[in-house]
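My current task is to audit a protein record that another person submitted. Thanks in advance; the entry in question is below:
***
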Amino acid sequence: MSGGLLGARPAHMGLVALRWPRARVRPVQQRGFTLMELMVVFAIVALIVGVVPFAFSRLNESTQYRDTVRTILSDMRAARQQAQSEGRETRFAVNLADRRFGLEGGAQHEVPEPLVLRATMAAQESAGDGSMAIRFLPRGGASGGSVDVIRPSGTGVRLRVDWFSGRVEQEPIAP
């Protein structure tokens, strides 16, 4: 055995050629994004950021409108039901100056700012401070009247109480 060479084999086994492994040449792969791709992404993000607040404000106004209409309608029907079941007059009160409504003696609800509240009620149920009421009678009748909830666009709904039957009905209001 001759000494010193790595990979050398004894003479009786023959010579073995040593080879260095060849480096494979791989194509250069670029990592990252091109300037055009980044510009497209930034344009899309800017569009979303510009549209979202507008859509959110319309969604918020729509939710406030539906909640207010639903609460007024529910309170009016509850007043009618309470008058009939308990056998005593019950009043649904509206205060236009304070932008509040609800069952008299019960929880009062506030009308959100973008909405407009209008009311038409009997003269004997109105006070000088902007408060009005619809009186529901034990036999099913009422003093009659209506409450309008108007959106900023001018559309809305009129919640009308029939004086004879005390029924509460909805009708759309066009601008």
